[in-house]
Write a structure and sequence with these properties.
This protein is of the alpha/beta class and 391 residues long. Among the domains are: 60-199, P-loop containing nucleotide triphosphate hydrolases (Rossmann fold); 302-389, Orthogonal Bundle (Arc Repressor Mutant, subunit A), CATH 1.10.10. The chain contains 17 helices and 7 strands. A 5-stranded parallel sheet has the order 2-3-4-1-5. Helix 6 (156-165) links the parallel strand 3 and strand 4 (170-176). Helix 10 packs parallel to helix 12 (285-295) and helix 14 (309-320) packs across helix 17. The longest helix has 17 residues, at 62-78. The chain is globular and about 65 Å long. The termini are far apart.
């Protein structure tokens, strides 16, 4: 029998292990540590978790917190009505963060009053279940339901109906991407749609955007698990005060992220990594420009300008496809009642350099068209703008 350390596969593993330990990945982690940043802090989840644990670091949304608080307070007076407040925003706009923080606020006012549920986790669980007199809930416990990620399940109508029927009255705060909300409302016109829609928009002014960047830097350089954290020592290019004084880089980050929270974080984290890989002493606009070019973010506003209603409808339909896995042209032919050549023309136009919004994956003999991943929030924002204009 071959000993473990004598096997060929072990040697492959050992070589990879040594290469990583002595290579760029290991050096990058050490470089971050020396500069006061924990390597595991450089991910969006850590940053959003930090902001959730330190709610004053969440920038904006005071209006939404006020409105949700008023609906909850009004409901608790008599508990004789049902309220539904959908939160609509692009991917990475901070919907989950807003819901998590508001859930915490609600339970701080009264213990176990609110509960947070991921809609996709209920797939198949409530199918066929019936609300009877025995399982109907009447207490305050869980009367306020935060239902997140409604776009991630095809059973959202059944989930909402069951959840609402489970108790006579309650407050339901749900989160949606714009295309999923359009699909839901178009298919369920008789459903008690909404008491008030809360539409999340990107940061639109310099002060809020700068404050958000300060929150991100604080999350990178402070341990989120301790109550009275101290700032680690770190160099100028990671120094929030120094960095935020450099309007040029800030402007570039905003130019390419358009103020979307998640995209802003992703661009900043990638910029830090590229600063290390290029052996630079500070973040600069050339780094962010190179990253934006690779992600296809250049001129996105111009590429979406004056887009036709038919093209927008096709983009909405592509977004509605589960996990953006792509859709075959024949499905679009059936849904839009257009001939094959017309659909082929529209898809070709959306792929041309002027738009460059979609891509095609070939699987066997079939072609699947999908929106370019990095452009999803921009197209979703375009949909939101159209929704607002039609009000």
């Amino acid at each position: 029998m071959i000993k473990l350390k004598d096997s060929e596969k072990f040697k492959i593993f050992e070589d990879a292990f040594k290469e990583a330990k002595e290579g760029e990945l290991y050096k990058y982690d050490e470089w971050l540590k020396k500069n006061g940043v924990k390597p595991n802090a450089l991910n969006p989840y850590h940053i959003f978790s930090f902001i959730r644990a330190n709610s004053d670091k969440m920038i904006g949304n005071e209006e939404f917190i006020t409105k949700i608080g008023k609906y909850i307070g009004h409901f608790l007076k008599d508990m004789d009505k049902t309220y539904h407040i959908p939160i609509i925003g692009v991917r990475g706009s901070g919907k989950t963060l807003l819901m998590r923080i508001t859930e915490n606020f609600t339970n701080s006012v009264e213990t176990n009053l609110a509960r947070m549920i991921n809609a996709d986790e209920l797939d198949g669980i409530i199918r066929g279940k019936i609300v009877s007199a025995e399982n109907k809930q009447t207490s305050k416990r869980g009367a306020i339901t935060f239902l997140d990620n409604c776009e991630k399940t095809r059973e959202i109508k059944e989930i909402l109906e069951y959840t609402i029927k489970l108790r006579d009255n309650g407050v339901y705060i749900t989160s949606w991407t714009p295309e999923s909300w359009i699909e839901f409302t178009n298919k369920n016109k008789d459903f008690p749609i909404a008491n008030e829609k809360l539409v999340m928009l990107p940061f639109e002014d310099n002060l809020n955007f700068q404050n958000f960047l300060e929150s991100v830097f604080t999350a990178l350089t402070i341990d989120k698990r301790i109550n009275t954290p101290e700032l680690y020592p770190f160099p100028d290019f990671l120094n929030a005060t120094e960095f935020l004084a450099k309007d040029e880089f800030q402007t570039k980050i905003y130019e390419f992220s358009h103020g979307f929270p998640l995209l802003t974080i992703e661009l900043l984290l990638e910029s830090i990594k590229q600063t290390f890989l290029n052996d630079k002493k500070e973040l600069d606009k050339e780094i962010i420009e190179t990253i934006a070019k690779k992600k296809g973010l250049y001129d996105i506003e111009e590429r979406l300008k004056d887009i036709s209603s038919q093209h927008l409808l096709i983009l909405i339909r592509l977004l509605q496809e589960e996990k953006n896995k792509g859709i075959r042209p024949m499905e679009l032919v059936k849904e839009f009642s257009l001939d094959k050549s017309t659909i082929a023309y529209h898809l070709k136009e959306l792929m041309k350099e002027k738009r460059n919004l979609i891509e095609v994956n070939k699987i066997g003999k079939s072609s699947y068209y999908k929106i370019k991943e990095n452009l999803i929030p921009f197209i979703q924002q375009k949909i939101i703008e159209e929704m607002i204009e039609k009000k």
